[in-house]
What does this fold into?
Amino acid sequence: MAADPVKFTLSEDQIPTHWVNLLPDLPGDPVPPLNPRTMSPAGPDDLTPIFPMSLIGQEVSADLEVEIPEPVREAYKLWRPTPLYRARRLERELDTPARIYYKYEGVSPAGSHKPNSAVAQAYANREAGIERLATETGAGQWGSALALACSLFGLDCLVYMVGASYDQKPYRRAMMESWGATVIRSPSDTTESGRAQAAHPTGSLGIAISEAVEVAAGDAGTNYALGSVLNHVCLHQTVIGQEALAQMELAGDEPDVVVGCVGGGSNFAGMSFPYIRRVLRGDAKTRFVAAEPAACPTLTRGAYRYDFGDTVGLTPLMPMFTLGHDFVPPPVHAGGLRYHGDSPIVSGLVKHGLVEARAYRQNETFGAAVEFARSEAILPAPEPAHAIRAVMDEAEEAKQAGEERVILFNLCGHGHFDMSAFDAYLAGKLEDPEFSEADMEDALERLPEAPAIA
Amino acid sequence: MAADPVKFTLSEDQIPTHWVNLLPDLPGDPVPPLNPRTMSPAGPDDLTPIFPMSLIGQEVSADLEVEIPEPVREAYKLWRPTPLYRARRLERELDTPARIYYKYEGVSPAGSHKPNSAVAQAYANREAGIERLATETGAGQWGSALALACSLFGLDCLVYMVGASYDQKPYRRAMMESWGATVIRSPSDTTESGRAQAAHPTGSLGIAISEAVEVAAGDAGTNYALGSVLNHVCLHQTVIGQEALAQMELAGDEPDVVVGCVGGGSNFAGMSFPYIRRVLRGDAKTRFVAAEPAACPTLTRGAYRYDFGDTVGLTPLMPMFTLGHDFVPPPVHAGGLRYHGDSPIVSGLVKHGLVEARAYRQNETFGAAVEFARSEAILPAPEPAHAIRAVMDEAEEAKQAGEERVILFNLCGHGHFDMSAFDAYLAGKLEDPEFSEADMEDALERLPEAPAIA
It folds into this structure.
């Protein structure tokens, strides 16, 4: 067994040249976002105040592939291609006949997959003559990624950081500042949206989004950048799945099931979209599993409706599974999964039965993360710990069924910034908050009036 | 320029098969460690209570190369080969004709180069029937690496963590515990050495070493593991330099100068020893620069004398540059460089003029780290920030001289655990502690009686 490979690497010239656009492949009629005032499909005019035309073009593109600009591929070279591993030690530990593979995005300078889209967005904005990007961040993964990307492309970066995180995670703020970003505690007195929310001093992701969008909409030199949910963000992340396809070929294996955690959907999209295209074309029979927190079970318990992307209601209405745009999820440590909605494309795939969603409690995901770390060495972030929990279930099922099953997942970030959560878990003090059906019903009652989705 | 490569990767089967042992290459007569009671060369009997025979064999080996056991190479595959980068963005930023390359060890699961030796030591001890390893850690890099290695090879791990760090860095403790280690605050009441130091509740690395050595010496099933200084630790790290040789060949370049930071010497040794062998054989004319903190300037200001490796005086006497075994360096953030002594081999190389040592102040190293992060994206740990400072000086010299100069250094770890220090630097609140000549003279007066080094 000693000579069996565990790591599959690609060279720099094997970084993909195109992103995979799944939008034209989707079954059923197109379901466009809506302008909340007119209830007609949101067009470029609804988006130009905050996004450059090239990204708007990607958002609605009917092309099967979108070429990656060379300067973006150059930036990718700073950490891509990322490695793909066969989890031989974990397989032995689980005593499973399943073969488990994982792609590892934690080698990026920000420690997660987020820079894949951040550099693409920073480049597109710089090319459009934009001087500054505004964004929001919760736990700090996206804010760090955009700060990094802006430093690479010479843009200023303004980050509204959720108040509670700003106070508890000064090292994340320091990371963004080290890359030259300006970080403002949200809610702030720098925006109308922030001043209106002064009664909620700990803030929320939805409030921070409202602040960043407001700044971008009011300043011609400033645009907005979002770290997930939107089609063009999912598009950028497909470098992950394309590299995985090449690496699985090196490994000589074909996944029976692809697993990913889902918050806004960009990580799940990144790994799965290139694989889903193969299934839609009849070239493969892969299953897909989306793992989310039971404390924020958008895909498993939410309503498939039009809703706003932010708390205040500044964005177009998006067709998606939602828990209500002002639903505030319990404070689980997987900050990247605490979002009321989900990518419209990923939502549609779940609705059409192409992706199966599962929800997991916080403690069982940390248990899976610790077991993974002790066999595979890498300490996962709390977000991919949800995927690992689902992978272990799949491996156990394979064992019970006595079948060889090939499982592939994306380990989208390391947990080096989340050790206080591991500390709480090991001390038996980690909370296991429950989703409140009542809170959600309450939030759903405040959903905007909009047509039902066909 | 867009098509020029920035990243040079090797495949899994290019992980080195042997470590490079520089001991037989050293100029001059051998300078063995001494038994402090007899003042005769320390033999295997002095070391068997705390080290397995195979590592003692590596410590004194006259072989030019030592084969890497296959299970250790298997463990290396979890993160090796590590990438080598051409720092094209930094070169442009510095407007230098120099070509700058760096090897990046921060992709390991512990975030530094330390696991290269930790897995080798854990394997050797398990093969010798040892059940537990005891060690010390300051900032936590080495303790994390050994905890990880023990989890991979099924050993228990006991870490004495310097009291001040234990209190300030609970996330580092949580990281070690996530990999299954037991972490004890030092000084503790679990050892005689610890109880004797109860008057120094914040502890020191020297005290923690004494505690770990005492436990290992008194328990047949427990051995001790050290993260730097010793010959066999330097040996294990030479996978870094060997991979760099292959990657520089891919890049088609030959370094004029190799730069590394030095604390105990293992990082410096790892990159430089394979290159130094070529110089000693007349095959190359590379210069070597060792960068250390001005607050703990062992190589630039210390005495070349026999001294203990620990505070209490439990180790053999080592021939090395030292500031005195009970010298307590000012609390700079580069915790891995706060050691009173240095690897005897690296000390000998400095003494013989093969390596040039330079000392840098804390603030200038953080300035270099931030400049590096904003061009090359990776946030360096405070330790390699010293190397980066020296690299920038070399690049500036090349610019002044109008000469192409090829510079290679090892970026031995990322700074994700050190963001509070970056925060202090950016806020202008980072201290710039000075080395106290008086303190050192005081400490040198307490050096053990021993022969001068020839």
Remarks:
- The mean pLDDT of chain A is 94.
- The two ends of chain A are 53 Å apart (CA to CA).
